Each structure stands twice: as structure tokens, then as C-alpha cells.
Task: structure prediction
Amino acid sequence: QVQLVESGGGLVQAGGSLRLSCAASGSTYTMAWFRQAPGKEREIVAATSWSGTTYYAGSVKGRFAISRDNAKNTVYLQMNSLNPEDTAVYYCAASRRPWSGDISLFASWGQGTQVTVSS
Result:
């Protein structure tokens, strides 16, 4: 397992942008962002493999962009055109396996960072 430290959350108005960062203590195959809103299950937002293959949830496709710097073991999430439905705690996660839809494959999790979008 690797240790993950997130940063970059905060409060933003609808239509605004935020950039999240997640630094890992070591290398890993898949790095991803999940989010969990109050009363809802944790859901995938975006994932990226070591080679740069990406996956996006339908609700964020075209608005969010995931990227990673393998030399720094860091993954980023650029969030544009934010709306109140994006309000949640965002978690960084790491897996040794490719993203397959199975959240249980992510053994390492960050502490979470709050993103709040006001209308």
C-alpha cells in the first residue's frame, strides 16, 4: 500500500474551477478520484493508469480532467464548470490493478478533501 495525501479542495461558486492534487508515497498502477456526497454511496469520478489511459464517470465527462506525473507519483483532477451537484468529499485512491469498476481493488485511500459548490 502507498500513503496518499490530497490537497486543493475548497468552496467555489457554480461555474468555477478547482484543481485537486494527490501525492503518493510510491508508484502504483491506477490512481483515481472518488467522491461521496452526504447520504450517498462513494462513486468513481475519474481514473488513470500508469500509461495514461483514463476513465471518466458520465456526470463529469467533458468538465473534469485527470492527469498524473509519474515522476512525482502525483495525480491531479482539474474540475471545470462546477455545479452544486459536484459538492462532496473527494478521495484519492490507488490500486495495483487496472480500473474495472471494482472499488474493492483500491487498497490505498487518502483522507479526503471537501469540495463545496455554491449556487
